[in-house]
Amino acid sequence: MSGIQAVLVGVIPSIGVALIFWYVMRAIIRADRREREMLAKADVEEAAVAAAEVAARPAAKDTSESPTGK
Fold first, then answer.
1. Per-residue pLDDT reduced to its tens digit, 6-65
2. Which terminus of the chain is more exposed, N or C, with fewer CB under 10 A?
3. pTM over 0.85
């Protein structure tokens, strides 16, 4: 084996492992980004539903009276 071949045999596996690591990390980061976007969207929808429920409720009555009317 010549010097260049020996270097390539030593470097190619490291490059392969680095590419696999890069691909896996990219997939993890993209999945996290999509999850955060979906959670933010769900929070906005939940807040809109809660606001609609509050707006649909009649005004609160005075609760200082006893339930028996005395």
1. 999 999 999 999 999 999 999 999 999 999 999 999 999 999 999 999 888 876 555 566
2. C
3. no
